[in-house]
Amino acid sequence: MSPARRPRRLGAVLSARGSAFLRDRRGAVMIVFVIALPVLFGVVSAAVEYGRLLQRRAQLQSAADAAALAGGSMLKLVNADDDAVRSAALQVFAAQARTPPDRVSTSNASVTDRRGGVEIAVEETVPTLMGKLLSLPSMTVSVQSKAQVVGLLRLCALALDTAAKGALSLQKAAQVTALDCSIYSNSRHAQGILAGDSAVARAQSFCSAGGYQGAGANLVPVPITQCAPIPDPLKDQVLPVPGSCIMLPSYISPKSATEGKNEIKDVTATLSPGTYCNGLKISGMSRITLNPGVYVIKDGPLVVEQKASLSGTEVGLFFTGDKGGLRFDKDTTVSLAARSAAPMAGLLIAEERTVASPVVAPLDEPVPPAPPPPSGTKPLREYRIVSDNTRTMLGTIYLPAGRLVIDAKKPVADQSAYTVIVAQMINLYEGPNLFLNTNYGATTVPVPDGVGPKVGAVSLAR
Questions:
Q1: DSSP string for 329-344
Q2: Which helix (H) or strand (E) is 265 found in, with range?
Q3: Residue 367 carries which DSSP code?
Q4: In 10 A of CB 381, how many CB atoms?
Q5: What percent of the chain is predicted at pLDDT more than 70?
Q6: Do 199 and 218 meet the contact criterion of CB atoms below 8 Å apart?
Q7: Which H or E element spans position 447?
């Protein structure tokens, strides 16, 4: 072989061996990659699973916190028992956690600290995406939350009827503003709270011993259902006893002494406390002021109609007899504040606790009747506010055998420091905005034991 060809042959050999080396190197890298691939895949999968678990844990913690706070708010309710508290907490948790059907979840709520706190503990089994590959088909996520309670919640409206549909109802454009207190229905009916049309209500909480139907309405927060009924918180209140019938002077009521009819028309006068038999009717352009004291309206209604006005402070109105009831008509003006001392301290309107056969709208005048209750119910007296100028109703309205109907079109009780309602049925129609204020410190009128200013706070302890 010539010297000139030897270097070319050597170069070819080296090139061939280099190519073989490179091919071998690529193969080695591929082998290493194939070996490492499951490990890399496992690491990525583990990171994804960990992220999912963290996200789900955060969701469960948020739901548990909301549940504990809801249970705490329920615990603050006067007369709320532990079962109702636990039920409220678990309902809120279930609604917010939205546990998928393929998961096993357990949640437990308990009342602790001598009814001073609510705890909720949750465990959820979460299936893993790569369970077979990782030999870990599922993982368990656990969260806990506790709300600490100080004080009792303000109860500002309670419908006592235990069976009626719509014991608490809001229809048409009815509104309720009760931002710092709770609204409650004792009815176990599936529609114990009934809201429809464009009704709007805001409160600290809503609770129904039965169910809730609210198509087209907006109640915030959404009512809790299946709550334990609250016994009448005012059942021990001492109510007035009727006395001898008052005979009004003839210049105030011409028929009072002769026919026993307390009818006042186009008169400006001041009335005194006492028993007004056969009711009291104020009409025309009358301007009537009530002196401080208790007014017993016996065997008849209190009617303020046409363009009349009725006002008074430190007064209590008590109704007795089957014909008892109340109606404030559309163009009237009513401003009333309850007494700050006994009798009837804090009770603005109250009634006899029993009724045999009530007479609704007993007067002869052709007054459009109130809308009927949502369903048949026991006999009830009717107390109806149609007035568009009833902005002060300071005190507690207690109607244990009555139906409160509000179908005004303007705010009611918005200028009252506070208003509390306890009635068999509470029905709102048309477009009123019923304000249930809780400015207890702004008045000397006390709130009766069982419903009032048990101020406090609920906060998360962990």
A1: -TT-EEEEE-BSSSSS
A2: strand 263-265
A3: P
A4: 26
A5: 81
A6: yes
A7: none
Measured CA to CA, the distance from residue 412 to residue 202 in angstroms comes to: 15
**CB-side neighbour CA atoms (13 Å) of 218:** 6
Q: How far is CA 202 from CA 180, 220, 437, 450, in A?
A: 9, 5, 12, 22
Global pTM reads 0.73
CB-count exposure of residue 129 (10 Å: 0-12, 13-18, 19+): exposed
Number of C-beta neighbours around residue 462 at 10 A:
10
451 exposure class (CB count in 10 Å sphere: 0-12, 13-18, 19+): buried
Burial code of 408-428, b = ≥16 C-beta within 10 A, e = fewer?
bbebbbbebbbbbbbbbbbbb
Interhelix angle 5-75/82-97, rounded to 10 degrees, is 150
How many other C-beta atoms can be found within 10 angstroms of the C-beta atom of residue 176? 26
Phi, psi angles (nearest 5°) of residue 86:
-60, -45
pLDDT digits (tens, 9 = 90+) for 236-270: 999 999 999 999 999 999 998 888 899 999 999 99
Provide the CB-side half-sphere exposure for 166 (13 A, CA). 20
Give SS3 for 358.
Answer: coil
Q: Which amino acid is at 378?
A: K
